[in-house]
Write a structure and sequence with these properties.
about 170 residues, mainly alpha, 6 helices
């Protein structure tokens, strides 16, 4: 039996421009989640823009150009309140590190992608802490909790990206 039967053959397809813009829009929406007014004594909100960026880069390799991390990082810097240029630098370094890992691995599965994303999230949040806060600030416990929450949310971001990617491929 054919497992790839399309049950909605007359569903309207996405225009090509909108299909190309979806990765950008989802990452920007993830970055915009930081402006939601939540009252918290400890900042545990994960960087959803970074999670979406990593999910798109690891799951749909050609959805974003290699230079896309810089303007998306600039947008994240503008809405998150981090020092200007920190996400531009750190997100671009994440793209370079992922490209380096992809050259070394012949085959990848989800567990390796999760491990790469965990390392990228941990390095990015730690470097962002070193850029934004003085070393005498006592934020290491909150940073570790934020890293753990972000790493645990990566499969959710990947599932969302996979669902969007199926919709994009159906329209192409």
């Amino acid at each position: 039996m054919n497992e790839t039967i399309d049950y909605t053959p007359f569903a309207p397809a996405l225009p090509a421009r909108r299909a190309r813009a979806l990765p950008w829009l989802t990452i920007a929406a993830g970055s915009l989640c930081t402006i939601v007014p939540l009252i918290a004594t400890v900042p545990l909100f994960p960087p959803l823009g970074l999670l979406m960026l990593l999910a798109w880069r690891l799951l749909a390799r050609f959805a974003l150009r290699p230079w896309a991390a810089a303007p998306l990082g600039l947008f994240d810097d503008l809405v998150s309140g981090q020092p200007m240029g920190s996400a531009v630098l750190l997100w671009s370094l994440c793209f370079l590190a992922i490209a380096f890992v992809e050259q070394r691995l012949a085959f990848r599965d989800f567990w390796q992608d999760w491990l790469v994303a965990a390392g990228a999230v941990a390095c990015t949040l730690t470097a962002g802490r070193l850029i934004a806060a003085p070393l005498s600030a006592h934020v290491d416990g909150a940073l570790a909790a934020q890293i753990a929450i972000a790493v645990l949310l990566f499969p959710v971001a990947t599932r969302l990206v996979a669902w969007i990617e199926r919709k994009r491929e159906r329209s192409a």
